[in-house]
Predict the structure.
Amino acid sequence: MTSILEIGKRAKAASFIMAEMSDTDKRDCLLRVAESIVDNADRIIDENKKDVVLAEERGTSPAMIDRLKVDLKKIEAMAEGVRQVAELPDPNNELLETVTRPNGMIIEKRRVPIGVIGIIYESRPNVTADAFALTFRSGNACILRGGSDAINSNTAIEQVIREALSKKKPGIEESVQLIKDLSHDSVNELMKMRQYVDLLIPRGGAGLINNVVKNSTVPVIETGVGNCHIYVDKDADLNKAVPIIVNAKTQRMGVCNAAESLVIHDAIIDKALPLIYEALHEKNVELRGDKRVMEILNDSKDVVSATDEDYGTEYLGPVISVKTAFSLEEAIYHINRYTTHHSECIVTEDKEAAETFLKRIDAACVYHNVSTRFTDGFEFGFGAEIGISTQKIHARGPMGLNALMSYKYEIRGNGQVRP
Amino acid sequence: MTSILEIGKRAKAASFIMAEMSDTDKRDCLLRVAESIVDNADRIIDENKKDVVLAEERGTSPAMIDRLKVDLKKIEAMAEGVRQVAELPDPNNELLETVTRPNGMIIEKRRVPIGVIGIIYESRPNVTADAFALTFRSGNACILRGGSDAINSNTAIEQVIREALSKKKPGIEESVQLIKDLSHDSVNELMKMRQYVDLLIPRGGAGLINNVVKNSTVPVIETGVGNCHIYVDKDADLNKAVPIIVNAKTQRMGVCNAAESLVIHDAIIDKALPLIYEALHEKNVELRGDKRVMEILNDSKDVVSATDEDYGTEYLGPVISVKTAFSLEEAIYHINRYTTHHSECIVTEDKEAAETFLKRIDAACVYHNVSTRFTDGFEFGFGAEIGISTQKIHARGPMGLNALMSYKYEIRGNGQVRP
């Protein structure tokens, strides 16, 4: 098994070759990879079956098995994802700014790849193809560390990718390196390898992300956890509020941009809450409310008292917390206290209240009369997404190709010295 | 003494007020602070004298005492620095991108302050005023942790700033928090306080920076270390090369953008090296060279053999290492091996060689026929500088006000839900 240090070295060396690859070459390589994924469907599916059998033996839940399983349809989706990334414009070398200084030297600020990007992720094998495609298109090398439950699937996909690359452009296959050592030590080593790894992106649950954030000395972009709120203002149009709440909570439950908490203004709660309850109850969503909520919905089915912990919980399932606010200020204060800085929404017809909310809420994406479910690279029109950043450094919100880029200053002159 | 946790809480609370402050208010506050610094010159100088006496008692070097000492001229320079920052345009709320999606929702990407920025620095008390001004102008709150040798000076400057702010806009003085607890524990606590601190910028020597990079769980921007190279290509114009080398090495020795190493093409070294030696020797610079260099300069004064360690050393003084390269490729390989990713220069009349160098060298600033000493926020026209980033995440190279900003997405609609 290749050592983690050796993997780092190879990826770093490959990153220099990647940085000089032409737009066309990167595109062609990715199209070739997409083709190979489809051509090698049987091989990937066979290896995936090993993972599925092992998962079943371990008593893994059907929902998790479903995420792990790869079939022909998922293979096609994987290939199509790679094809779509292939067709994205090359961000490399883009001129961001240029200035001629009084002494005649010309400063150009140009986009360049970051170098080596490490991605640590869980279960779903499609992330292997997906993360590779995005880092490759942006001219970076990648080191992938998937979950142990998908190791056979991930290894097969990595091999198919590497074979396709080496046929197209020998040597360039070193730009993708899957870590097969599943020990904790291998992750720890990866997280400390500052000399070879420029950025780490953890993709997965809160436990995985916190572990990386706490232990990495390589810079990290924190992604994903979303305790998203919908605030129903006193001047909300309930014909907008109810559909937005139902969409944000139930259109897909297990995702980071799903709503997990409602804040409702006291002046409208008597009218709003029964309608909201009815709509959510129909979708089998349990409400966890404060005293005011319990008074209004007394004896209703699937309504229980909220604890303080509820307001800080990302349920990722059919539960939502509900809090009464007696003013816009209280709503903003409550949301800023419990926010994970992901996506937050106000529903109101009062423009001034909306602007106050958008400015004062400290989150990557702040919505006025729109479902939080739109926080997504594709929905934003980026054509791709490597994750959703919930921190403020480097990239915030949905991360497209540009989030995988750095820049450099190129300065040209004719002998300028500093006086 | 206020606890570090309490300092974090207060700074975070202040950051929300800062984020909403108008351009005019921020400007006026800074101008008032500049005035107060001058008005309180005696008080600051008196407190500074205590630090100087203590430093002398400890046997501190005259050079260090000189950096520590504050006199009327330095007070005026400090105030002028704050005034200049006051006059910079406000980056807050700047519209970076806007797009109307097919469903009618409008996405605006706007610049917003990062929040709370911690700055850990050494000796020079002017950094206290400087770092405050930059974070304040960009709408951030700051937590400052200066060196123990300047604690009385830093405390006096912080008090003058806070008094001026509280007179101008009561409460806003909480946006600047100096840590007076000089224990290691206080720095450690600051570096782990993710809930209140959004970014840490260490400013100082390699030891300080490495400590922060290794131990912080708060995102860090690495600054400063510069093992900068000048590569004299075979097609170099020596009338440009020699002045650039002398400028980059000797115009100011103790700074991060000073040259520390020369790489000279074998085809030109016989002609170039004696001229370079003569010019540097006149400035009392010692050369540490490889075999080829020793052959050419045999028996010359102040020329010694270089070790491998020399090529990795940032001397910050009158020494420079010299290496022979037999090709452009070898020069690039050598520089990419020893670079600290700060500033690197090629001197050549061959445009193609220059472009290859600029593209392939992995550094924040790459120069063609220009001294590396220009890597500086003021020289780049940013009007200010909080430091020079040598990493690729968030900000690279000289960091002006925009490096202290994040962004957020504001999405406005009329009830859009995700299909």
Summary: DSSP finds 15 helices and 16 strands in chain B. The first helix of chain B runs from residue 4 to 19.
